[in-house]
UniProtKB/TrEMBL annotation:
Lineage top rank: taxon: Bacteria
UniProt key word Transcription regulation: no
Residue ranges for the DNA-binding region feature of this UniProt entry: 30-49
Organism: Streptomyces pseudovenezuelae
Gene3D superfamilies reported for this sequence: Homeodomain-like, Tetracycline Repressor, domain 2
Protein name according to UniProt: AcrR family transcriptional regulator
SUPFAM superfamilies: Homeodomain-like, Tetracyclin repressor-like, C-terminal domain
Length: 209
């Protein structure tokens, strides 16, 4: 069998871990089980990542990168401020509706990381990354439209994401499309008001499932 370098094996193992833990849950994601998912020796996982926590950290980083890439691609280049926040919310929500298992896995990994000192840095990096990207997109939209922000972009981003996180957990727990869309519009509208706009319902173009 041809030798496969650690650099080549790393993304394969990350994908195998995501596939396995999406299907079976984080609790079942031992290095032995993930190695078996890819059909390699358990030692290969330890050689590539050092520990199970090292592999989990890489999985969190990959899930975060994938999520941020989808959101950044959805940001309108010339829309108004309200339109931009609505488009960001719609893009995020689309990932929840189309990839609920990925969001469930990220939620499980977050809970696991809270009890694992070895993963706290990865968890902090995840939230910093999401907040920084969201704050940057809000800042760019405000500058493009000439809207002075009443609160720091970082604060608005944290508020926006807190609402989104809560609604995501509700979606994973119980489905109610109509109520979810109403709540989505409400917290986007509140974020716009926090930025200095009027408190009125902002349209969020969520496609039907």
């Amino acid at each position: 069998m041809a030798h496969v370098s650690a650099a080549e094996r790393r993304p394969q193992l990350i994908k195998a871990a995501i596939d396995f833990m999406t299907r079976e849950g984080v609790a079942a994601g031992s290095t032995r089980a993930i190695a078996a998912e890819l059909g390699v020796a358990q030692a290969t996982v330890h050689y590539t990542f050092g520990t199970k926590e090292g592999l989990y950290r890489a999985v969190m980083e990959q899930l975060t990168q994938d999520l941020l890439a989808q959101v950044e691609q959805a940001a309108p280049a010339d829309g108004g401020f309200e339109e931009t926040l609505g488009a960001l919310a719609a893009a995020l929500w689309r990932t929840v509706r189309e990839q609920p298992a990925s969001h469930q896995l990220l939620t499980e990994l977050t809970m696991f990381a809270l009890r694992s000192p070895a993963l706290r840095e990865a968890l902090d990096a995840h939230y910093r990354g999401v907040i920084e990207v969201t704050a940057r997109l809000i800042t760019e939209a405000a500058e493009r439209t000439g809207r002075p922000l009443a609160q720091p972009a970082d604060t608005i981003a944290r508020f926006f994401l807190a609402g989104f996180d809560g609604l995501t957990l509700q979606h994973l727990s119980t489905l109610d499309d109509e109520a979810e869309h109403t709540c989505l519009q409400a917290f986007v509208s509140a974020a716009v008001a926090m930025a200095g706009g009027r408190l009125e319902l902002v349209a969020v173009p969520v496609a039907a499932s």
